[in-house]
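## Example pair
The file below holds two records. Each record gives the amino-acid sequence first, followed by its structure token line.
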Amino acid sequence: MYILANGKLITRDSALPYLPDGGVVIDGTKILEVGKTADLKAKYPKAEFVDAKGGVIMPGLVNAHTHIYSALARGLSIAGHNPTNFYEVLDGQWWYMDRHLTLEGTRASADALYMDCIKQGVTTIFDHHASFCEIPGSLMQIADSAKKFGIRSCLCYEVSDRDGEEKSLQAVQENADFITYCEKNPSDMLKAMFGGHALFTISDKTFDRMVEANNGRTGFHIHVSEGMNDVYDSLQNYGRRPVQRLQDHGILGPMTILGHCIHVNTAEMEIIKETGTMCVNNPESNMSNAVGISPVLQLYKRGILVGMGTDAYTNDMLESLKVALCSQRSNVCMPNVGWCEVTDMLFKNNPIIGEKYFGVPLGKLAPGAAADVIVMDYKPFTPFSDENIDGHMIFGMTGRQCQTTICNGKLLMKDRELVGIDEEAENARILEVSKKFWGELNHREY
């Protein structure tokens, strides 16, 4: 049993939103009690005390869309790669990389990303993996890493026809096998979805195979209308817009995540709403790829559940929160919009998306909720409470201020030191794998 206290407690729970000197009692994998520091210490004198040292105690963060396979790309330059459009970004960098990503590289990527998540207060991720060099067994490599580092993870594999039918079939089977594994080994820490890349790389035949292999067991996680090439391909080759194609194949529904949704029209928005399908915005990645800005305000107005991801551009959810606000305001040329929408995406909607899969209350500190708790080393010099916490998040905090991370009741990091993990040894091992990986990509030694 832990008492994590002596901090400014932000619960995200309307029953008790804020305590200037509070904390939580953690018993097993759940929060047992929330209250004032002195009261908790007096009531549970034998509990191990974890000192927040005056920092901000808050729920762990959820990343609703990321890509573990891109973790080894940090600082990478591919010789001769100078993309002028989105397709060239995909084909010249990301597809080129995943065609060289072995199982060893997949495991190293997962280890690197999970350590970064711990250090930035992210306790739950929805990953969308691709490693077309070696597909079979790749999701289990990630699952093993997730168990080792203790991060709540929902995984899938990116089905695509881009590398031929054999690889496409392997990708379908990888999803099916991992879904079966999760069914046979139920856990509130590891779940499965059925992944697909983007519609312009998936034929009708492959969609039918995906639906058959899934057999209604879980939701789909797919990129939708990230670039206009997705829209053009659907219209020119199938006479339907992307969301309509998904509806035709039975892909949509309340357990399905549509990533990006930048170039969806109003008719498609209505389909998304009527089917209860979820969307996830990835603001920094979209701006970097110059593909446009998702119409989050319109999606939100229609009552669509819109979450926030990073697309692995970063692992810092607070960084993405800042960019989400700026991009929405810039998109409509209005400085007084977006605040409620983007903060809801991260602090309300992402936990709702997580709860659909993991079946435990996420994103709040309350009795019975999952014991996913972080402490931010943030010393405000202006008034601070639940009334203005989002303003402090957007203008004052970054993920790197995370000092302590607990997920599912397990202490993963304390005072910026990973618990039970030799970070230097892990980094050294990952570096050797990445050197080999970069060498294969650029035909040289590093």
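Second record, same layout:
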Amino acid sequence: MRLFRKSKSAGEPDLSKLPRHIAIIMDGNGRWAKRRGLPRTAGHAAGAENFRAIATHCKNIGIEYLTVYAFSTENWKRPPDEVATIMGLLEKYLREAIAQMERDRVKLKFFGDTSVLSEDLRTLIAETEAISKRFEGVQVNICLNYGGRDEILRATEAYAEAYKNGTAPPLTAESFSTYLYSANIPDPDLVIRPSGEMRLSNFLLWQSAYSEFYFTKTLWPNFNPHELDKAIIAFQERDRRYGGI
């Protein structure tokens, strides 16, 4: 349920004008660890804890959808121990989430090709998505083994197969979007990238056509709820015209 305040203090977002959908590229874990003389895996652990804090803050202020870039199709190129750490952290989070989803009313959905993941992870993903169907609440979409170009190619193949079978609707932007992982989910209003990098890195290429972008040098483990509020305030100060006047 969206929460409202009659007024807001300086430095706080207007909760009556929140973006429905926020997407975040969770970047900067490795650099955060390096600056502290820690292994990159420590940065991913800190980033995972911060994800939990940001998801909770989104739920508390009334954001309807949160999509995070957890692991891209290109991230398999990283050292095997780093990949194993990321997958282990995800498994730990999902086991905890399963125990808390009914209480927290947080729905989980996954974007990406999960067929290549371990059997344990695939089982946990299926279980969390089954639980999510039982209630309404903030929806958190986790992009895992995800790439924007790969998503568009897969959607094109699915549409072509439906067309061959005579079941495809007339091709429009709206009908094509139903073949994406994000089918029936509104496009992100706001895309955030911490860490100082200023590119999308193959994230939600179709869906972000009219998104507002917010870049910050803050590294992901330090991107706390106050930093998210700053991004939302910046979003609320913009005039979204969608190509019009």
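Notes on the second record: Confidence is low (pLDDT under 50) at residues 1-7. Strands lie at 21-25, 65-72, 106-111, 138-146, 190-193, 212-215.
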